[in-house]
Amino acid sequence: MSSSTTGPRRVPLSILDLAPVSEGADAAQALRDSTELARLADDLGYARFWMAEHHGSRTFASSATSVLLAHIAAATRRIRVGSGGVMLPNHAPLMVAEHYGTLATLYGPRIDLGLGRAPGTDPTTAAALRRSTGQLDSFAQDVADLATWFGPREEAPGLRVRALPGEGTRVPLWMLGSSLGGASVAAALGLPFAFASHFAPDQLTQALAYYRENFDASAPTAQVDRPYVMAGINVLAAPTTREAEVLRTSSIVMAAQIRSGNAGPIVPPDEAVLENLDPRIGQLVESLQQVRAVGTPDEVVAGIDAFVAQHDLDEVITTTYTWDPALRRRSYELLAQAYGPLPQPTATVPTEAVA
After folding, report:
1. What is the set of domains in the chain, with CATH numbers?
2. How many helices (H) and strands (E) does the chain have?
3. Which of 82-86, 116-120, 191-195, 242-246 has the lowest mean pLDDT?
4. What is the pLDDT of residues 144-171, one digit of tens each?
5. Cα separations (Å) of 302 from 8, 55, 93, 305?
6. Among residues 36, 119, 186, 226, which is most buried (max CB within 10 A)?
């Protein structure tokens, strides 16, 4: 959607956090830093604070996602808290329903459940975790089961398996994806769709087109009455463009390490990386992180506005990596100040309070 005569169309901004571990720190510090960021995001008006499931990683400390979200929800007041996402093939769907139903019972209608098909780890760790293959047909059925378990008892009176707590909480479901596979499930089930363009942007345009063209608002599992899209973007705001680019070198090294199978904690920024980066690594990182807005606050806002307009997005979810957690918080403060009043999500998914 193009800009209106009154300026760019502003959509809700959210934060995706993986509890990144900085070099010289540990997982406990990373979790304290994520909690502090969530409190700040709550105060600044960001729409959602989502955490993503990763296993066996020295870079991220977000393996026990539902446990972390309980802690984050207890530390915040207003912001929506959720998974971005739960890798459903790693879990029994009933247990997911119980965990997120319990969160909704404790914290009311602030809980989101984003669902993905990827393992969220390396093949060996995945083999130790996985209980299913993540094939589209079985995955879609698991998602449908979750929708049923979160519904009120009277809508499924013959249901023999019940999620307690969870039943009647109507926890909003989101489909996550980075390909046509996730788009097809989201469309068939009538769910909002979150695309992982912050690290896998190649199929963004095709996936959104497929989702919008094939969306089924009449599906029994439908939670929105029209296609509803959120997409990810890497952001980093600093007082100057050069400082932002230098701070981004930590993210460049992180991406290169993850792709090489040698992932470790987030390293300090290094200006030399900008001058001496191996062209092959640079090309790889550029491909992975091409959806980004890095620079001064105004430059970052302009980048987000252009991203929203290009893909007609309903929401944007941002991710930021810096070695110094204080500079990550500063980036989000600068972005919020430059963006103006942060819009909140409209009533696009069930948000009924738990009785």
Report:
1. 13-339 (3.20.20.30)
2. 13, 9
3. 116-120
4. 999 999 999 888 878 889 999 999 999 9
5. 9, 35, 40, 5
6. 186
